[in-house]
Amino acid sequence: MSAIATLFQEGARLAAGFRETAFARHMPSSDYAASLAVFDEPLSAAGSDMLDVIRQLSDGAEPGLHATTGPRFFGWVIGGSHPVGVAADFLTSAWGQNAGNHVAAPAAAAVETIAARWLLDLLKLPAESSVGFVTGATVANFTCLAAARGEVLRMVGWNADADGLFGAPEITVLIGHDAHTTVFSALQFLGLGHDRVLRLPADAMGRIDPAALPGALDAITGPLIAILQAGQINTGAFDDFDRLIPPLKAKGAWVHVDGAFGLWAQASAKVSHLSRGIEGADSWATDGHKWLQTPYDCGYAIVRDELAHRRAMTIAASYLPLAGEGERDPSHYVPELSRRARGFATWAMLKHFGRNGVEALIDQCCASARLMADRLAREPGIAILNEVALNQLVVRFGVDCPDDEGDALTRKAIEKIQSDGILFAGGAKWRRRDVLRLSVTNFQTTSDQARLAAESIIAAYKSVSDSAGHGSG
Ligand SMILES: *Cc1c(COP(=O)(O)O)cnc(C)c1O
Q1: Is the Cβ atom of 236 under 6 angstroms away from ligand 1?
Q2: Which CATH class, in words, describes the domain spanning 88-350?
Q3: CATH number given to 356-467
Q4: Which cofactor(s) does the record list (predicted)?
Q5: What are the tens digits of pLDDT across the range 186-225?
Q6: Is the N or the C terminus of the chain less surrounded, counting Cβ atoms within 10 Å?
Q7: Ligand 1 center to 260 CA (angstroms)
Q8: Measured from the CB, is residue 136 less than 6 Å from ligand 1?
């Protein structure tokens, strides 16, 4: 066997070994400090043998790896990194294409074009929209909001892309009270300021209160960007697009939607009522590496007005033909020039699942979330604080105790769940109280896995509440 084949096979063997055992193990045995100790050595002068490097990397890293790819990983909102996407990513790395333009990487550019078309079709967004393949929803929000910034200023005769923001007409940014922190990062990067926003009040689930919009709009003049949300990070709730988008559009706003995971509701007949009206927006940010299960480093910036998208992302936009008129250069829709060919893994996942497979995946995650919610809610002392309409659960323990005791019990239950190691989920603050947050976004989380997880959570809670002298009630 050639040296390359031996090396690649060893990489594949180690990868498969990890995936097969990740099923059983939910907490890393090494934390950051322990992992640092493993790798902490001076850079060697002589270098190391190829095979040794890969084996040392695997041996050193594995104890510090979370089982994010396993069926009972409910922490943050993290997809499963499906094996088909991983294999496509191996190839992407091995091919070493620079996906900046279609001359340097014809196949990569072509596959992005097709994957973009499939995504728009699946997510029921306007077919004329352009899609940038970015690192994730943070950069997707940034990219979409850059297009928004350029366009709302262009409408009042200001070229922000050429002339910057010094002396520009002021833009009002409307955003919901419970928007994701990364959207504020995007505003920060764009010179719009993360605090220089008008926050619309939200209801108990984190949805913008539509009744608050008319009053807010009356007070606004000039360029306006409104940021709505599909899938609140804790509750999974959606803004009411049907009620919010028309008055915003009537006011001349650019409407952007952060749909990092929630946009995928569009792909399922069972939950697409949640996102009704979302196609009326101007731009949408979503992730491939959450619900579509691609490996990490994969999100999509989707913009209805392709020219606005390109103006924001490339200096040459004005003289280049639109994609419909010529070949599509991937770099015209993203901040980077040289990059990995992200379209291959997206194409592979869409090809593998097909339309029905994506729908079944979304439905399975939502059904598993519902099953866990129903089981946990039946247990005395445990309450589900959100309407479980999608895949997110906000769980509170010690509901019969005073708030501070409930906070303490909730934190203890989370510690116990994590140390038991049967599943992983983490804590969050919701409406200033401690909660356990569960996100079901893994293709392997079947009803059996959900049942096992729910029983383990209940057992962990009973053990901490008994030892705290509360009984389990
Ligand atoms: C995860 C998430 C983001 C950020 O996405 P990344 O892929 O981590 O960059 C933004 N908004 C929401 C609602 C999210 O869930």
Answers
A1: no
A2: alpha beta
A3: 3.90.1150.170
A4: pyridoxal 5'-phosphate
A5: 999 999 999 999 999 999 999 999 999 999 999 999 999 9
A6: N
A7: 5
A8: yes
